[in-house]
Design goal:
Elements: H1 15-42, H2 49-53, H3 55-102, E1 105-111, E2 116-123, E3 128-136, E4 140-148, E5 151-161, E6 163-169, E7 174-181, E8 188-196, E9 200-203
Antiparallel strand pairs: 1-8, 2-7, 2-9, 3-6, 3-8, 4-5, 4-7
Helix pairs in contact: 1-3
Amino acid sequence: MHNAQKPALEDLPTTRQLLKSTAIAAASAVAILVTVVLPAEYGIDPTRVGGVLGLTEMGEIKQQLAEEKRLDEMSMVDDRPSIWSDLADLFVSSAAAQDATEWRDETTFMLAPGESAEWKMEMTEGQVAQYRMTVEGGRVNFDLHGHGGGNSVTYEKGRGSSGEEGEITAAFDGDHGWFWRNRDSSVVTVKVQVRGDYQVFKDAS
């Protein structure tokens, strides 16, 4: 087995030589960075060498692709609220459609100052109907009552009403509903929605 001989001190590089080699390596790295890396990756060509070698165009393309990717990602983020907005609109529309279909009958009419109207439901004793009345443009007086077979009953009276809701339980066989009169000085719009147990909802004016 042979042992390798240690190099003599005079064969080792001096400190000056090491510094010189380091400086050369650093200068080479900077040169490569400026002439190759910057043009090829970022489209930056301070020495114009990258343009001659076709590297600058490559770097510009890379930057364009990166910018397009960034804009696409931003667009995807911006689209998210609109997706939630569409879902919210769909929910509201579905709720409105459900509300519209849950009422069996409805009527809307206008009353000039001093005018009156009357709508009734034909019901048999014990039947129950729900109602919702809304008034726009002013207020009305109303009388919720029933009559038939020589019987009559008053369920509720309202003065200066802008809307009511509740239910009617028929006290006997006959017509049960409302009489309205507009005592305001402006035209009002009345909307009535009904559902439940009754035979027909009709204009009794």
